[in-house]
Amino acid sequence: MKKKVIALLGNPNVGKTSLFNRLTKLNQKVGNYPGVTVEKREGTLVHQNTKYHIIDLPGTYTLYPNSLDEEVVYDTLSDTKGSYHPDLVVVVAEPATLKRAIVLYQQVREMGLPAIFVLNMVDEMTEKGISIDFDALRRLLRTEIYQTNARTGKGIEELIAGLDNDPSLYISTFQVPAKYAAALVDAKRLFPLAKEYSTWLNLAQENSKVLTADQRAGIVQIRQQYGITPQQLQRDESLVRHEELDRALEQIVIRGENKALTTTAKIDRFLMHPLIGYAIFLGVLLLIFQAIFAWSAPLMDWIDNSFSDLAAYLSAQLPEGPLSSLFTEGIVTGIGGIVIFLPQIVILFIFISFMEETGYMSRVVFLMDRWLRPFGLNGKSVIPLMSGAACAIPAVMSARNIENPKERLLTMLVTPFMTCSARLPIYIVIIGLVIPEGTFLGFNIQGLVLFGLYILGVVSALASAWVLNIFIKSVHKSYLVFEIPTYKMPDWKNVATNVWEKSSGFLIGAGKIILAISIILWVLGNFGPNDRFYDAESYVATEQPSLEGDELETAVASYQLEHSFLGYIGMGIEPIVRPLGYDWKMGIGLISSFAAREVFVGTMAVVYSLGDDVDIEDDGERTTLFERMKNETNRNTGRPAYNFASGISLLLFYAFAMQCMATIAVVKKETGSWKWTLIQLGFMTGIAYLAALVAYQLLK
Amino acid sequence: MIVQYIIIAILFIIAIVMVIKHVFPKKSTDAGCGGNCKCDAKLQKN
Questions:
Q1: Transmembrane residues, as ranges (chain B) (predicted)?
Q2: Of the four listed, A66, A130, A139, A616, which is most buried by Cβ atoms within 10 Å?
Q3: Are residues A393 and B8, on separate chains, in Cβ contact within 8 Å?
């Protein structure tokens, strides 16, 4: 079977990813480009005995990179020996920004790469008042032009059939300005086999990765000799191309009234209003958190009961012994403790994807820019901060879009304060235990508290940025330049794919670590270092001779847990967590959740299940996770373990603490500095401990 | 019964290795894998 690498290239917001989804269907995966943390989407398509390996390159306006994303595009296209170097580039455009896409197309062709041109969103031409002479455009571009609508699938078959065709020969139209001709002649000596435009690109690029050290030194010398800078070359090329294209497109593209823009302008009158815009944004956030609580409750109850039933079923079916106990008390209970939160996470991602798909997220970037600047951040910081509501790991990575190094560093340092989905299970379970049900001004009180915790996340991120901004100095001037797209109905397939990717990623990523930790906890809780664990019954009978029946069994189970390995570890750290209102069992939860926050609830489910002396096969005695936590007593205070004071203390601890090793690893990778990683870890943990301590001591 | 304890011991060791690998990822992490290096490596291989 023939193999061919196809790269999808285009400006942001031209429907490139929708087209990628159409071409690859479910045969796609998300990874990273080698050596960098830029997300790489790739997939496969088999058509007429050819296997196409399709790469969805990050959206870019130019081949002159200003960010890591754009660097990846240039490196992929220019590195002829790279494994992702394309056999064919598919340049994707949309009618309203045709000229910019043509500039990108011309640059690619002049590098010597074969390319075809796809005009996506063709159905919007009428609404946008645009008419195009496609025959003339075909002659101008010297390639086939495919008209598609990736949302409906229109034109996709024709495009797939065209992937095997070779575009006709392209003759460069770019005339190098005369003032650079001598420098270019000298540069050609460094690249004797390269095309003239590739040599020009090497002269105009700031930090190309494909050059050898000698070539790089030679380029620097030529620039110095002729007194030229890469920025001058880039600017002049852009001017030449745009002037030429303005003339060429005059007869090809006819523009009338843009109704889409009119509709967008009408909507933006409200959504971008200096006052109403912010009120609407706040309302949207409130709606999301209300929905998370109100819509998911029945599903959560169902999942909780199902796992409880599954544990009972396994207990009845498996032969009696430690392995059966490991499955029912350890694995099923631990996994159940995380699956229960899937409904909320799906709801959260549906809202985030919806905001991205409709174009509202871009407005949020714009709205927030002026408010984020005093904190040393940039409007683009909103994307990492909002993504932080899902998971800090991809959120920290998404900060690579921010060009200014200081703003990028600040964004990475404060993003983990945002309430990630791993905190959600902890918040939901603790709020459910310590905050009363009911309504306030028509709002669900528990939903309001959750909303408050999200606001707390935002406030602490901003406050930390403000403090760090004082200490971190920057030499670069910062500005926000980006394109606000017109409003669109969301592509529900994209929403579904995104929700599926993020939710399954959370479930698989979290599920694996919780499975492992559940096994470890069960083993540590079922074995002990001395005979106080193994002869617990005789010790309890001696110490409390009056106990008998169920009371004796419960006392033995509790005594065993206290004298297990797990018990001794918990007791060891209890002095540190006692001032925060926690007992040793909660201390174990804090330690295990350092691997990942969401592990806390699963840990508590396993720990309390071990301490229970319940006949799991008896419907009357079986308890759900919530009931087990509600019934737990703090042995130091004699009060419920999850009372108002300890609950608020726990909520605050998790709101601030950097309880996620994977995020620490990513921050280290992205900042390239242990210094900033450790500062962040110390800063967040210190605030968390202090806030929890103060809250408990005031409220107890 | 001894077989059950051997299985539990093996599962315990595997679990500890899984946690260590999660806490100290070797490769760069990515969004789809929730920060898990093994998942990332599998994706690269595919």
A1: 6-24
A2: A616
A3: no
pLDDT digit string, tens, across residues A282-309 = 888 778 767 776 787 788 888 888 988 8
How confident is the model over A551-607, as pLDDT tens digits?
787 778 778 888 889 889 888 888 999 999 998 888 888 877 776 677 788 778 777
Cβ A322 vs Cβ A374: under 8 Å: no
pLDDT tens, A107-155? 999 988 999 999 998 888 888 888 899 999 998 888 889 999 988 889 9
pLDDT for the residue A656: 93
Separation in Å, CA of B15 to nearest CA in chain A: 4
The residue length of chain B stands at 46
Q: Which residue has the tokens 């606001």?
A: A455
Q: Which residues pair with A3 in a beta bridge?
A: A51
Beta strands at A50-56 and A39-47: parallel, antiparallel or unpaired: antiparallel
Rounded CA-CA distance A636/A585 in Å is 11
Average pLDDT along chain A: 83
Domains of chain B: total: 1
Which one, of A480, A450, A454, A284, lies nearest residue A371 by Cα?
A480
| Better-predicted residue by pLDDT, A654 or A75 | A654
Residues of chain A with CATH 3.40.50.300: 2-162
Which residues are within 8 A (CB) of A121 and not within 5 positions of it... i.e. 6 or more apart? A14, A15, A94, A95, A149, A150, A151
Nearest to A582 by CA among A594, A597, A570: A570
Band of residue B29 on the pLDDT scale cut at 50, 70, 90: very low
Q: In angstroms, rounded to a whole number, what is the distance separating the alpha carbons of residues A109 and A104?
A: 9
How high is the ipTM of this complex? 0.70
Q: Give residue B17's domain range.
A: 2-45
| Residue of higher predicted confidence among A194 and A480 | A194
The residue of B6, B21, B36, B39 whose CB has the most chain A CBs within 10 angstroms, and thus the best one to mutate to test that interface, is B36
Alpha helix stretches (DSSP H) within A272-404:
276-294, 297-317, 322-325, 332-339, 342-358, 360-372, 382-387, 392-398
The pLDDT-based confidence of B43 (bands split at 50, 70, 90) is: very low
B22 in contact with A at a CB cutoff of 8 Å?
Answer: yes
Residue B19 touches chain A, beta carbons under 8 Å:
yes
| Mean pLDDT, residues A89-116 taken together | 91
A213: confidence class by pLDDT, cuts 50, 70, 90: confident
Contact state of B35 with A31 under an 8 Å Cβ cutoff? no
Nearest alpha carbon to residue A537 among A553, A524, A551, A525 = A553
Bridge partner list, A9: A91
C-alpha A344/C-alpha A389 separation (Å) is 12
Between chains, do B29 and A662 touch, taking CB under 8 Å as contact? Answer: yes
Domain at A2-162: CATH code: 3.40.50.300
Rounded CA-CA distance A416/A396 in Å is: 8
Q: Nearest residue of B to residue A595 by CA position?
A: B23
Distance from C-alpha of A374 to C-alpha of A287, rounded to nearest angstrom: 28
Please, are residues A582 and A571 in contact by the beta-carbon 8 Å criterion?
no
A29 touches chain B (CB under 8 A): yes
Q: Given A32, A391, A515, which is nearest B34 (Cβ)?
A: A391
- By CB atoms closer than 10 A (0-12, 13-18, 19+), residue A156 is middle
Q: Is the pLDDT of residue B34 over 50?
A: no
More confident site: A469 or A389: A469
